[in-house]
Amino acid sequence: xxxxxxxxxxxxxxxxxxxPTYQAxxxxxxVHRSPFLPMWxxxxxxxxxxxxKDASLSADRTRFEGFDPPEDFEVHQSMLTLDPPQHxxxxxLVNRAFTPRTVERLKPRIEALVERILDGAERxxxxxxxxxxxxxxxxxxxxxxxxxxAEDWPRFREWSRVLAASLDPLMGRQDAAIDDYVAAxxxxxxxxxxxxxxxxxxxxxxxxxxxxxVGELDSRELIVMLNLLLVAGHETTVNLIGNGTLALLRxxxxxxxxxxxxxxxxxxxxxxxxxxxxxxxxxxIATADFELGGKPICKGELLMTLLGAANRDPxxxxxxxxxxxxxxxxxxxxxxxxxxxxxxxxxxxxxxxIAIGSLVRRFPALRLAGDPELSxxxxxxxxxxxxxxxx
Length: 391
Ligand code: HEM
Prior knowledge:
CATH 1.10.630.10, three-stranded antiparallel β-sheet, binds protoporphyrin IX containing FE
C-alpha cells in the first residue's frame, strides 16, 4: 500500500531537515493537498517557477478563500502582497535605491562593519556568528539606508522577530498568532511614526527623507513600506550568512576550495542560497480555475510554492544534494521569480559575499565550537546561534 504523504513543516524532524520530505513530495505528489493545511503545496522547480511568473495569479492573501481575520483586524498590505497596478507604483518608488549600482556604493561601509566585528572576535578567538555578525550587519545596513537609528535595533528586534514568524503557515494557531502579530505591527508602526515625524522636520540623506520629499505615499503607506524594508532587509540576510557559513563548515572541501579560489565567492553565495534557502516558501492565490500537474486548482485556493524544494529539484539541478560552490548554471529560486523578485537581492548578495568572504579569508582554522541552534520559524529558515572558534 502506498504511504500517505503529508506536509507538516512543524514536525521537529522536518524542521531540522526538510529536504527528505521535499524529495518524497516532489517525486510522489508534486502538487500536494496537505490534510494539515488548506492549500496546495508545490515542490517541483517547473511548477514553482511557473506559478511565480504567472501574472494571472495573485499575491494578495486577502483573495484566499480561507482568509478570515478577526472582525476588527486591519489589513496592511505592502508591495509584497499587492498586485499591479498598486504593486508597480509602490515598487517603482524604491527600486532605484536597491539596484546593483546603487548598492555597490555601500561596499566600503559594509566592509568596515564586517572588519570591525571580526577584529573584536579575533582578539577573543571566538564568535557567536548570529548575534555578533549575521544579525547586526544587515540590520545596521538597512537601518542606515532607511534613516532609522541603527542603535535602536535592540528595541525593534523583538517586534521584527514576531513579524517574521507571522509569515509561517498557520496551523490551528490563528488567534494567538494574530494577536502577537497585531501587537508587534502596532509597536513597530508607532516607533517608525516617531522617526518619520523627526525626519519630516529635519530631512537627511536617507531613503525615508527621499520618500517624504517625493510625497507620493500617505502616512500609512509610508509606515507599511518602511516596515517591510526594515524587516525584509535583515530577517532574511541573517539566515543567508548563518546557513551559508554552516553549510561550508559541514563541507570542508568546499570551504577549502573557496579559500584557495576567492574568485568563486559570487557563485558560492548563489550556491549557498540554493542549498539551504533562507526563505523556504511563498504563496499565490488562484484567480480562476486551472489545472496544474493534473490537479484541478479552483479560484480562491492558495498555492504554497516551496522555494527550498524547487532549489533541490534534480530536474533543474544535476546532483542537487551536492554542495558545489562552482555550480553553473545556477538559476535558483531563492529570491523568487517574476514581478515580486526580491528587491533587496543585490544588497543581500553583497552583504553575504563580504561577510562570508572575510570570515573564510581571515580564519583558516574556522570551526564549530558548539551545536548550532535552529530558529523555530519555517518560512524563514535559519539559525538562532552558531558558536565558532576562530583559531
Ligand atoms: C538572503 C536574503 C533575502 C532573501 C532570501 C529574500 C527572498 C525574497 C523572496 C523569495 C521574495 C519574493 C516573495 C514572493 O514572491 O512572494 C522577496 C521579496 C522581497 N524582498 Fe527579499 N530576500 C532577501 C533579502 C532582502 C533584503 C536585504 C531586502 C531589503 C530591502 C529585501 C526586500 C524585499 C522586498 C521589498 C520584497 C518584495 C518585492 C515585491 O513584492 O516586489 N529582501 N525576497
